[in-house]
Amino acid sequence: MAAAAAVGRLEMAALAWLALSLAVVTAVDRSNFKTCDQSSFCKRQRNVEAGSSPYRALLESLQLSQDSMKIQLINEANKVPLLLELYGLKGNMTRIRINELNPLKPRYEVPDVLVQDPPTTRLSVTGRDDNSVELSLGEGNHKLILTAKPFRMDLLEGRELVLSVNSRGLLVFEHLRQRKDSFSDKVSSTVVSIWDRIKNLFSREPPKEPASEGEGAAEASDAPSSAEQESTEKTEQGEEAPKGASETEEEPGSWEETFKTHTDSKPNGPTSVGLDFSFPGVENVYGIPEHADYLRLRTTEGGDPYRLYNLDVFQYELYNPMALYGSVPVLLAHNPQRTLGIFWLNAAETWVDVTSNTAGKTLFGKMLDYMQGGGETPQTDVRWMSESGIIDVFLLLGPSPNDIFQQYASLTGTQALPPLFALAYHQSRWNYNDEEDVSTVDNGFDEHDIPYDVIWLDIEHADGKRYFTWDPNKFPRPREMLQGLAAKRRKMVSIVDPHIKVDSAYRIHNEIRSRDFYVKTKDGSDYEGWCWPGSAGYPDFTNPEMRAWWSSMFGYDHYEGSMENLYTWNDMNEPSVFNGPEVTMHKDAVHQGGWEHRDIHNLYAFYVQMATAEGQVKRSGGLERPFVLTRGFFAGSQRYGAVWTGDNAAEWDHLKISIPMCLSLALVGISFCGADVGGFFKNPEPELLVRWYQAGAYQPFFRAHAHMDTTRREPWLFGEENKALIRDAVRQRYALLPFWYTLFYHSYRTGQPVMRPLWVEYPQDATTYAIDDQYLLGDALLVHPVTAQGARGVQVYLPGKGEVWYDVHTHQKLHAPQTHYLAVTMSSIPVYQRGGSIVARKERVRRSSDCMYNDPYTLYVALGPQGTAQGELFVDDGHTFSFETKGQYLHRRFSFSGNTLTASSADPKGSFETPAWIERVVILGAGKPAAVFLKQKDVAESRLDFTHEAETSVLTIRKPAVNIGADWSISLR
Ligand code: NOJ
């Protein structure tokens, strides 16, 4: 009976979700998601006030070894000792780890995200007094002053203070403890939860904690507790330490926490950690995706902190700090002198407060301060708060933005080089209904002469949402379908979600169950939640054996009907649990090793994508590069594929925000980002759809996708004019594929983002700091998509003192810096090439990127103010690891100076044969030469044909007909 009732409830929850998802809803139901106040640890931490740190560093405990400094910190209030370890890392980074000296049991430390144990440098003590010690950090000119009481650390470059740690005294470390009086606490939290429910019954507001709870909260969890102090013993250093620590007067929510109908049993009690960082002289901070917000982070004073907790947020709202599907706990701080980074390596629910002493001041106010000499130095403070784990934080000391990218990449790896097709255009919807539908859409692209590479199958393709299977009625012959696509040199992506239908007739489920690979409930049974297939189990992706098994499921013998041209989409991997707290997994669910879901939550999606990508590599015997799209992500996810921004809507603001959302990801290593073109929910009007294609064509991951409830929107369904506009946008993407591919190669090698905020390339230009309606691709193209309805023009900021930019469509030359007004029509995609750059294109129109493989190149040489330009091109087979394992690639360099364009190798380690040649060289900003000559080694000089347009100063040199791998020079005489 009870079981049946439970199933009934589950069904209702799922039906409610589904009903919601089908209805035209306009905004997120905020009450489904916690505010900081409703997340007990966030509330406790936020109640800790600045300026009264109870921590003292025990200078006498300091130990210096080859590569690290260790020192104990004592909480003077409860006498619990912590151990702080400090490492100077190669490449100008510092790592700080803080853990309990004697935890009751180990606390979670995030594995698998760092690509290696970061190499250390030597630390040395360079000064000392009664209350402080000064360390030199090995590399650069950095010093760290550690003050004992109150504990803080200040990092200096030369004599300049660049960063302080705990200067506001917000270090919080809730030590593991035994529950003092489980009975009375239980009673009190039960009272609170009953109270919550009663209140809930009478109010439509999200449940709030009773007022009394907030009172006295200033003495939050790390406030002195007399009983605790009584129950102490001596540490090695003679300090008092807790004796199997027990606590008194815990706040409600410490040992059990209820949100809506869900109670988190919190067997370990309060375990949160937190720390503050201050950046003097800094007004601009960025990063910590994923949020649907501006690129430049805003102060969180008076509102909620930015939340990092991977969640499936239905109909997410824009311009707020609510959590979304993925989390990268990396923040960048920037001013004209330097860029710094903080990487907070913690996978638990995390909140980040940003405060600034200049927030809210107008530019005029700031100028007035400056003129009167009375203004304070601007400063931005950030405060990190995580629910469990340890403090493990990397300070990336820059000083340039590129240094930060390199530093972060040395820790978590770089963007995987995607197979070339993945950079082309993807056609998706929920769902392409059957094989015939797939074939009709596929043919549609040929009929309408629009290139495309990949068609996607959403959840309805599988047999009853049993992933790795095909619906026998709709997709009875998957291999034939895939072969049909392969014949046109196209691919398919099928969805494989990490919730597995509980069904004893489903092989995948049976195997997972028999191998005991499912996540467990707190009571040890298999965790079950509600998702697309109904009741579902969640494989424990934190278990390496489970991941290896999962990977093997992508083998052609296991995934029946699959073929080489079938790739994967991992959705719902936050994980999404329709009937779980905040639509995700219960925090007290248990993973391998006994870790709570609480500890690993933000890592789950990372592991799903990792295991899937490894499966694709394995099925090819290690030869082929994978392509996996994921919705959830964490630091390091860049190593496994692409991400997209989830369920957006067909609204202008959603188009607009796709730019800062992808830019924020790019800043923290994840370059392969895109948004559903057209918007997922609702039906775009044709103007919006066209504008979205135009914008998407210039974003890294370019896929149209739509909710099942929307009307069909293949590009030819909107009339000839709109079709032509969409076709043109897609063709622009294809022409630039060599450029995109080279950018991705560069990102893979160096960690530099593909899509860049302007300030990354122009770090001293304060005008760029808040710009997020335009961006750079590499350092060569500046894109300002039209994102406003009925736009007649856009204001484009062209940066770079003394630089020039060329409109790529008209070739008009513009001097920078300036804000240029460009009048636009429906066909305009404002894109500018920087004078001084060379961009390679392939301009023949084909069906797919693979069909263009041997096509000739056109080089666009945009002359800089000195009449020079440089550019690069990367070429390989486009899909295997041979570029890595066998050096089979070409990395070419083109350089123009002294009226001569030269092609040479940028990297002699690579070699590769390709028939592709150069059919044209277009030089922007060139005068008319009398003659043009081509010179190749051991070949007589030959004259080349050319045309020159005096009005635009465009010189077009015809048919040099040199192989793309050859060395040559072209001189204008
Ligand atoms: C949610 C995803 O965000 C969306 O893109 C997909 O179509 C649906 N799940 C169905 O799989």
TrEMBL record:
<feature type="compositionally biased region" description="Low complexity">
    <location>
        <begin position="213"/>
        <end position="228"/>
    </location>
</feature>
<dbReference type="GO" id="GO:0106407">
    <property type="term" value="F:Glc2Man9GlcNAc2 oligosaccharide glucosidase activity"/>
</dbReference>
<dbReference type="InterPro" id="IPR013780">
    <property type="entry name" value="Glyco_hydro_b"/>
</dbReference>
<dbReference type="GO" id="GO:0033919">
    <property type="term" value="F:glucan 1,3-alpha-glucosidase activity"/>
</dbReference>
<dbReference type="Pfam" id="PF13802">
    <property type="entry name" value="Gal_mutarotas_2"/>
</dbReference>
<dbReference type="InterPro" id="IPR017853">
    <property type="entry name" value="GH"/>
</dbReference>
<keyword id="KW-0256">Endoplasmic reticulum</keyword>
<dbReference type="GO" id="GO:0005975">
    <property type="term" value="P:carbohydrate metabolic process"/>
</dbReference>
<dbReference type="InterPro" id="IPR025887">
    <property type="entry name" value="Glyco_hydro_31_N_dom"/>
</dbReference>
<comment type="pathway">
    <text>Glycan metabolism; N-glycan metabolism.</text>
</comment>
<dbReference type="GO" id="GO:0006491">
    <property type="term" value="P:N-glycan processing"/>
</dbReference>
<keyword id="KW-0333">Golgi apparatus</keyword>
<dbReference type="Pfam" id="PF17137">
    <property type="entry name" value="DUF5110"/>
</dbReference>
<dbReference type="GO" id="GO:0030246">
    <property type="term" value="F:carbohydrate binding"/>
</dbReference>
<feature type="signal peptide">
    <location>
        <begin position="1"/>
        <end position="27"/>
    </location>
</feature>
<feature type="domain" description="Glycoside hydrolase family 31 N-terminal">
    <location>
        <begin position="84"/>
        <end position="353"/>
    </location>
</feature>
<feature type="compositionally biased region" description="Basic and acidic residues">
    <location>
        <begin position="231"/>
        <end position="242"/>
    </location>
</feature>
<feature type="domain" description="Glycosyl hydrolase family 31 C-terminal">
    <location>
        <begin position="751"/>
        <end position="839"/>
    </location>
</feature>
<dbReference type="InterPro" id="IPR011013">
    <property type="entry name" value="Gal_mutarotase_sf_dom"/>
</dbReference>
<protein>
    <recommendedName>
        <fullName>Neutral alpha-glucosidase AB</fullName>
        <ecNumber>3.2.1.207</ecNumber>
    </recommendedName>
</protein>
<dbReference type="InterPro" id="IPR033403">
    <property type="entry name" value="DUF5110"/>
</dbReference>
<keyword id="KW-0325">Glycoprotein</keyword>
<dbReference type="GO" id="GO:0005794">
    <property type="term" value="C:Golgi apparatus"/>
</dbReference>
<feature type="region of interest" description="Disordered">
    <location>
        <begin position="204"/>
        <end position="273"/>
    </location>
</feature>
<dbReference type="Pfam" id="PF01055">
    <property type="entry name" value="Glyco_hydro_31_2nd"/>
</dbReference>
<dbReference type="Pfam" id="PF21365">
    <property type="entry name" value="Glyco_hydro_31_3rd"/>
</dbReference>
<dbReference type="InterPro" id="IPR000322">
    <property type="entry name" value="Glyco_hydro_31_TIM"/>
</dbReference>
<dbReference type="InterPro" id="IPR048395">
    <property type="entry name" value="Glyco_hydro_31_C"/>
</dbReference>
<feature type="domain" description="Glycoside hydrolase family 31 TIM barrel">
    <location>
        <begin position="416"/>
        <end position="743"/>
    </location>
</feature>
<keyword id="KW-0326">Glycosidase</keyword>
<keyword id="KW-0378">Hydrolase</keyword>
<comment type="similarity">
    <text>Belongs to the glycosyl hydrolase 31 family.</text>
</comment>
<dbReference type="GO" id="GO:0017177">
    <property type="term" value="C:glucosidase II complex"/>
</dbReference>
<feature type="domain" description="DUF5110">
    <location>
        <begin position="857"/>
        <end position="914"/>
    </location>
</feature>
<keyword id="KW-0732">Signal</keyword>
